[in-house]
Amino acid sequence: xxxxxxxxxxxxxxxxxxxxxxxxxxxxxxxxxxxxxxxxxxxxxxxxxxxxxxxxxxxxxxxxxxxxxxxxxxxxxxxxxxxxxxxxxxxxxxxxxxxxxxxxxxxxxxxxxxxxxxxxxxxxxxxxxxxxxxxxxxxxxxxxxxxxxxxxxxxxxxxxxxxxxxxxxxxxxxxxxxxxxxxxxxxxxxxxxxxxxxxxxxxxxxxxxxxxxxxxxxxxxxxxxxxxxxxxxxxxxxxxxxxxxxxxxxxxxxxxxxxxxxxxxxxxxxxxxxxxxxxxxxxxxxxxxxxxxxxxxxxxxxxxxxxxxxxxxxxxxxxxxxxxxxxxx
Length: 329
Prior knowledge:
Blueprint: E1 2-5, E2 8-11, H1 28-43, E3 55-59, H2 63-71, H3 75-80, H4 92-109, H5 113-117, H6 124-134, H7 140-151, H8 160-178, H9 180-198, E4 204-206, E5 212-214, E6 221-226, E7 231-236, H10 246-275, E8 281-283, E9 286-290, H11 294-309, H12 313-325
Antiparallel strand pairs: 1-2, 3-9, 4-5, 6-7, 8-9
Helix pairs in contact: 2-10, 4-6, 4-8, 6-7, 6-8, 7-8, 8-9, 9-10, 10-11
GO cellular component, one term: mitochondrial DNA-directed RNA polymerase complex
Protein name: DNA-directed RNA polymerase
GO molecular function: DNA-directed RNA polymerase activity; mitochondrial promoter sequence-specific DNA binding
């Protein structure tokens, strides 16, 4: 007998204890809960009539990139994140890993020492977190740390810095190549926030559902306190009366804007799931319901994503910024 956990086939042990094989899953407690639910269904004597309380979840295919592909009407990017029909589901993480590996192989053939040391080390797991978080503002330094964590143990520690730096550079290059329009939108959002901040105003916008958003990033000041024993410099927490922190305003705008679209899509899906009378729970881009309602939730999720992106989101944002801040942007 074989059970599947996120695409991994794990053979069941024939011994009486099961050998705790479920602990080898990516999410071991979820594997165990699923096993217990299946066992209860089989032992009920009538599995088709068994009432299951185990939620089934569906995740977006790197949903940050999905939003950017939809915003930019980027057909190539949309294909890689499953926004257009295809013969089989696409895996953007595996796609980026394949591009990185292709470049690594070319560099290794030319005698690049780091590329040679990375032979057999590039995988979906190594690049996944960085690909996932690039659209939420991860920096080169942050991406390098993420990749170093995945590579640690598979390569010597004295090579970890150079290897992780090489990989993160190739991941960023692959993303720029595959999702060029996403990079352009990010740059425009950052530039707009920078200009607004330099005019001593915090960046703000309104979501498609009418929710106003204001970025609360203001400069922090140091206050000196002198005593008979010593002098202390204390950092004073931000205050709305202080000038905006331009760097934080600029860097936070792309991820915060996409998060606001995430929340809009989640709210639309929740409202329509409620109207359809089905249970619904969500964590970011992971939507949960009972097994018998998965098809309904799947349909609602897709319909509301299309409904959201049928709105002229970027045009509306540009008009709002022009109305709110004049010709700053």
